[in-house]
Specification:
globular, alpha+beta, 8 helices
Protein backbone atom coordinates (compact mmCIF):
# COMPACT_ATOMS: atom_id res chain seq x y z
CA UNK A 1 0.00 0.00 0.00
CA UNK A 2 1.35 3.38 -1.02
CA UNK A 3 0.05 6.89 -1.46
CA UNK A 4 1.22 10.11 -3.09
CA UNK A 5 -0.55 13.48 -3.11
CA UNK A 6 0.19 16.84 -4.69
CA UNK A 7 -0.88 20.37 -3.84
CA UNK A 8 -0.47 21.97 -7.23
CA UNK A 9 1.88 24.14 -9.21
CA UNK A 10 2.72 27.83 -8.90
CA UNK A 11 2.71 27.25 -5.18
CA UNK A 12 1.82 30.06 -2.79
CA UNK A 13 4.77 28.74 -0.79
CA UNK A 14 6.88 30.95 -3.04
CA UNK A 15 5.24 33.96 -1.37
CA UNK A 16 6.47 33.45 2.19
CA UNK A 17 8.40 31.07 4.39
CA UNK A 18 5.39 30.79 6.69
CA UNK A 19 3.10 29.55 3.91
CA UNK A 20 5.77 27.12 2.73
CA UNK A 21 6.01 25.58 6.20
CA UNK A 22 2.22 25.53 6.51
CA UNK A 23 1.93 23.59 3.24
CA UNK A 24 4.60 21.11 4.27
CA UNK A 25 2.80 20.49 7.57
CA UNK A 26 -0.55 20.23 5.82
CA UNK A 27 0.69 17.73 3.22
CA UNK A 28 2.31 15.60 5.90
CA UNK A 29 -0.88 15.55 7.96
CA UNK A 30 -3.12 14.76 4.98
CA UNK A 31 -0.93 12.02 3.49
CA UNK A 32 -0.73 10.30 6.89
CA UNK A 33 -4.50 10.50 7.41
CA UNK A 34 -5.08 9.17 3.92
CA UNK A 35 -2.63 6.30 4.39
CA UNK A 36 -4.37 5.33 7.63
CA UNK A 37 -7.67 5.36 5.74
CA UNK A 38 -6.12 3.18 3.02
CA UNK A 39 -5.48 0.42 5.57
CA UNK A 40 -9.15 -0.54 5.57
CA UNK A 41 -10.44 0.99 2.34
CA UNK A 42 -9.92 0.61 -1.39
CA UNK A 43 -7.60 2.79 -3.44
CA UNK A 44 -10.70 4.22 -5.14
CA UNK A 45 -12.31 5.34 -1.87
CA UNK A 46 -8.98 6.56 -0.52
CA UNK A 47 -8.08 8.90 -3.38
CA UNK A 48 -11.48 10.60 -3.03
CA UNK A 49 -10.97 10.92 0.72
CA UNK A 50 -7.46 12.34 0.35
CA UNK A 51 -8.51 14.88 -2.27
CA UNK A 52 -11.45 15.96 -0.08
CA UNK A 53 -8.98 16.76 2.70
CA UNK A 54 -6.98 18.88 0.26
CA UNK A 55 -10.19 20.57 -0.91
CA UNK A 56 -10.98 21.42 2.72
CA UNK A 57 -7.67 23.22 3.25
CA UNK A 58 -7.67 26.83 2.03
CA UNK A 59 -3.93 26.65 1.35
CA UNK A 60 -4.77 24.92 -1.94
CA UNK A 61 -6.61 25.97 -5.06
CA UNK A 62 -9.39 23.38 -4.93
CA UNK A 63 -12.63 23.30 -3.00
CA UNK A 64 -12.29 25.91 -0.24
CA UNK A 65 -9.80 28.48 -1.48
CA UNK A 66 -10.52 28.01 -5.19
CA UNK A 67 -9.53 30.82 -7.53
CA UNK A 68 -12.11 33.34 -8.77
CA UNK A 69 -12.73 33.59 -12.50
CA UNK A 70 -12.81 36.81 -14.54
CA UNK A 71 -16.54 37.35 -13.93
CA UNK A 72 -16.18 37.06 -10.16
CA UNK A 73 -17.50 33.50 -9.93
CA UNK A 74 -15.79 30.36 -8.61
CA UNK A 75 -16.13 27.30 -10.82
CA UNK A 76 -14.44 24.04 -9.88
CA UNK A 77 -13.62 20.78 -11.64
CA UNK A 78 -12.74 17.33 -10.34
CA UNK A 79 -12.46 13.76 -11.55
CA UNK A 80 -11.80 10.30 -10.22
CA UNK A 81 -10.74 7.16 -12.09
CA UNK A 82 -10.78 3.53 -11.00
CA UNK A 83 -7.83 1.61 -12.41
CA UNK A 84 -9.62 -1.72 -12.11
CA UNK A 85 -12.75 -0.78 -14.07
CA UNK A 86 -11.01 1.95 -16.12
CA UNK A 87 -14.03 4.17 -15.59
CA UNK A 88 -13.71 7.92 -15.04
CA UNK A 89 -16.34 10.24 -13.61
CA UNK A 90 -16.14 13.97 -13.05
CA UNK A 91 -17.62 17.43 -12.77
CA UNK A 92 -16.60 20.44 -14.83
CA UNK A 93 -17.12 24.06 -13.76
CA UNK A 94 -19.39 23.18 -10.85
CA UNK A 95 -20.37 25.94 -8.43
CA UNK A 96 -21.28 26.16 -4.75
CA UNK A 97 -20.38 22.71 -3.45
CA UNK A 98 -17.86 22.03 -0.69
CA UNK A 99 -16.23 18.93 -2.19
CA UNK A 100 -16.41 18.56 -5.97
CA UNK A 101 -14.49 15.28 -5.70
CA UNK A 102 -17.37 13.64 -3.82
CA UNK A 103 -19.84 14.73 -6.51
CA UNK A 104 -17.46 13.26 -9.10
CA UNK A 105 -17.27 10.02 -7.12
CA UNK A 106 -21.06 9.84 -6.79
CA UNK A 107 -21.35 10.07 -10.59
CA UNK A 108 -19.42 6.82 -11.00
CA UNK A 109 -22.66 4.89 -10.58
CA UNK A 110 -24.39 6.80 -13.40
CA UNK A 111 -24.42 6.13 -17.12
CA UNK A 112 -23.69 9.82 -17.70
CA UNK A 113 -20.53 10.11 -15.64
CA UNK A 114 -19.14 13.56 -16.56
CA UNK A 115 -21.38 16.59 -15.98
CA UNK A 116 -20.70 20.29 -16.36
CA UNK A 117 -21.98 23.64 -15.15
CA UNK A 118 -25.64 23.89 -14.18
CA UNK A 119 -26.22 20.20 -14.83
CA UNK A 120 -23.47 19.23 -12.41
CA UNK A 121 -24.84 21.55 -9.73
CA UNK A 122 -28.39 20.28 -10.25
CA UNK A 123 -27.19 16.70 -9.87
CA UNK A 124 -25.31 17.60 -6.69
CA UNK A 125 -28.37 19.27 -5.18
CA UNK A 126 -30.65 16.36 -6.08
CA UNK A 127 -28.21 13.94 -4.45
CA UNK A 128 -27.91 15.69 -1.12
CA UNK A 129 -24.87 17.93 -1.57
CA UNK A 130 -25.58 21.18 0.28
CA UNK A 131 -25.08 24.62 -1.21
CA UNK A 132 -21.70 25.89 -0.01
CA UNK A 133 -19.58 28.93 -0.92
CA UNK A 134 -15.90 28.05 -1.24
CA UNK A 135 -14.75 31.67 -1.46
CA UNK A 136 -12.27 32.88 1.14
CA UNK A 137 -11.25 36.53 1.78
CA UNK A 138 -7.74 35.98 0.40
CA UNK A 139 -9.08 34.89 -2.99
CA UNK A 140 -11.40 37.91 -3.13
CA UNK A 141 -8.44 40.22 -2.40
CA UNK A 142 -6.42 38.55 -5.15
CA UNK A 143 -9.32 38.90 -7.58
CA UNK A 144 -9.80 42.60 -6.78
CA UNK A 145 -6.07 43.20 -7.20
CA UNK A 146 -6.25 41.63 -10.67
CA UNK A 147 -9.19 43.87 -11.52
CA UNK A 148 -7.20 46.90 -10.42
CA UNK A 149 -3.96 45.86 -12.14
CA UNK A 150 -5.13 44.23 -15.13
CA UNK A 151 -1.47 31.18 -9.80
CA UNK A 152 -2.54 28.20 -10.99
CA UNK A 153 -3.03 25.07 -8.88
CA UNK A 154 -4.60 21.70 -8.58
CA UNK A 155 -4.64 18.91 -6.00
CA UNK A 156 -4.50 15.19 -6.59
CA UNK A 157 -3.92 11.76 -5.10
CA UNK A 158 -2.75 8.41 -6.46
CA UNK A 159 -3.00 5.23 -4.38
CA UNK A 160 -2.39 1.51 -4.59
CA UNK A 161 -4.25 -0.63 -2.05
CA UNK A 162 -3.55 -3.97 -0.35
CA UNK A 163 -5.02 -5.80 -3.33
CA UNK A 164 -2.74 -4.01 -5.78
CA UNK A 165 -5.56 -1.94 -7.24
CA UNK A 166 -4.82 1.59 -8.43
CA UNK A 167 -6.93 4.74 -8.43
CA UNK A 168 -6.49 8.47 -8.97
CA UNK A 169 -8.43 11.62 -8.12
CA UNK A 170 -7.78 15.25 -9.08
CA UNK A 171 -9.52 18.51 -8.18
CA UNK A 172 -8.99 22.16 -9.13
CA UNK A 173 -10.35 25.64 -8.63
CA UNK A 174 -8.99 26.68 -12.03
CA UNK A 175 -6.17 29.05 -12.88
CA UNK A 176 -7.87 32.23 -11.69
CA UNK A 177 -9.31 35.08 -13.76
CA UNK A 178 -9.95 32.77 -16.72
CA UNK A 179 -12.68 33.21 -19.30
CA UNK A 180 -15.93 31.72 -17.93
CA UNK A 181 -16.48 28.32 -19.51
CA UNK A 182 -12.79 27.48 -19.75
CA UNK A 183 -12.22 23.76 -19.12
CA UNK A 184 -9.11 22.54 -17.32
CA UNK A 185 -7.31 19.23 -17.72
CA UNK A 186 -8.29 17.94 -14.27
CA UNK A 187 -11.59 16.35 -15.28
CA UNK A 188 -10.12 14.84 -18.47
CA UNK A 189 -7.99 11.76 -19.13
CA UNK A 190 -5.11 14.08 -19.99
CA UNK A 191 -4.82 15.21 -16.38
CA UNK A 192 -6.25 12.24 -14.47
CA UNK A 193 -5.87 8.65 -15.70
CA UNK A 194 -5.56 5.14 -14.31
CA UNK A 195 -5.71 1.49 -15.34
CA UNK A 196 -4.48 -1.78 -13.84
CA UNK A 197 -0.85 -0.87 -14.63
CA UNK A 198 -0.45 2.76 -13.58
CA UNK A 199 -2.25 5.84 -12.25
CA UNK A 200 -1.28 9.50 -12.83
CA UNK A 201 -2.48 12.90 -11.60
CA UNK A 202 -1.26 16.13 -13.23
CA UNK A 203 -1.02 19.79 -12.33
CA UNK A 204 0.21 22.85 -14.21
CA UNK A 205 -1.07 24.62 -17.31
CA UNK A 206 -4.21 22.72 -18.28
CA UNK A 207 -4.00 23.61 -21.96
CA UNK A 208 -0.45 22.21 -22.14
CA UNK A 209 -1.43 19.02 -20.33
CA UNK A 210 -4.38 18.47 -22.69
CA UNK A 211 -2.27 19.18 -25.77
CA UNK A 212 0.33 16.67 -24.59
CA UNK A 213 -2.22 14.11 -23.29
CA UNK A 214 0.21 13.79 -20.38
CA UNK A 215 -1.49 11.32 -18.00
CA UNK A 216 -2.76 9.09 -20.78
CA UNK A 217 0.65 8.91 -22.46
CA UNK A 218 2.44 7.95 -19.24
CA UNK A 219 -0.09 5.25 -18.34
CA UNK A 220 -0.16 3.86 -21.89
CA UNK A 221 3.62 3.65 -22.04
CA UNK A 222 3.81 1.84 -18.71
CA UNK A 223 1.06 -0.53 -19.91
CA UNK A 224 3.12 -1.25 -23.03
CA UNK A 225 6.13 -2.24 -20.93
CA UNK A 226 8.10 0.97 -20.42
CA UNK A 227 9.37 1.68 -16.90
CA UNK A 228 7.55 4.40 -14.99
CA UNK A 229 10.64 6.61 -14.97
CA UNK A 230 11.23 6.26 -18.70
CA UNK A 231 7.55 6.85 -19.45
CA UNK A 232 7.75 10.11 -17.52
CA UNK A 233 10.96 11.22 -19.20
CA UNK A 234 9.69 10.55 -22.73
CA UNK A 235 6.36 12.27 -22.06
CA UNK A 236 7.98 15.32 -20.51
CA UNK A 237 10.45 15.57 -23.39
CA UNK A 238 7.44 15.76 -25.70
CA UNK A 239 5.94 18.41 -23.42
CA UNK A 240 9.06 20.53 -23.96
CA UNK A 241 8.46 20.61 -27.72
CA UNK A 242 5.31 22.70 -27.11
CA UNK A 243 6.96 24.72 -24.30
CA UNK A 244 4.55 23.01 -21.92
CA UNK A 245 4.46 23.48 -18.17
CA UNK A 246 3.27 20.61 -16.00
CA UNK A 247 3.94 18.31 -13.10
CA UNK A 248 2.72 14.80 -12.37
CA UNK A 249 2.65 12.14 -9.66
CA UNK A 250 2.21 8.40 -10.29
CA UNK A 251 2.27 4.88 -8.92
CA UNK A 252 2.61 1.75 -11.05
CA UNK A 253 1.29 -1.77 -10.37
CA UNK A 254 4.60 -2.76 -8.74
CA UNK A 255 4.20 0.03 -6.21
CA UNK A 256 6.88 2.25 -7.72
CA UNK A 257 6.26 5.94 -7.05
CA UNK A 258 7.47 8.63 -9.42
CA UNK A 259 7.05 12.36 -9.94
CA UNK A 260 8.37 14.98 -12.32
CA UNK A 261 7.73 18.61 -13.10
CA UNK A 262 8.84 21.28 -15.51
CA UNK A 263 10.30 23.37 -12.70
CA UNK A 264 10.85 22.54 -9.00
CA UNK A 265 7.66 24.20 -7.77
CA UNK A 266 5.16 21.34 -7.47
CA UNK A 267 4.32 20.56 -3.84
CA UNK A 268 3.73 16.91 -2.99
CA UNK A 269 4.06 14.24 -0.32
CA UNK A 270 4.28 10.46 -0.38
CA UNK A 271 3.96 7.80 2.31
CA UNK A 272 4.12 4.00 2.36
CA UNK A 273 3.82 3.44 6.11
CA UNK A 274 7.57 3.70 6.66
CA UNK A 275 9.12 6.20 4.27
CA UNK A 276 7.62 9.69 4.27
CA UNK A 277 8.61 12.49 1.88
CA UNK A 278 7.47 16.08 1.45
CA UNK A 279 8.73 18.30 -1.36
CA UNK A 280 8.10 21.80 -2.72
Amino acid sequence: MKLIIHGGFFSESDQSHEVKIAKQDSLKNIVQKAFEYLQSNSAFDTVAYAVSLLEDDELYNAGIGSQIQSDGVIRMSAAIMDGETQKLSGVINIQDVKNPIFVAKDLMKEDDRVLGGEGAKRYATEHGFENFSTEIPQRRKEYEAKLANGGKGTVGCVAIDKDGKLAVATSTGGKGFEIPGRISDSATVAGNYANAFCAVSCTGVGEDIVSNATSTKIVTRVTDGMTLENAFHKTFEELKTIDGFAGAIAIDKEGNIYHQDSYPTMVFASFDGEIFKVFN
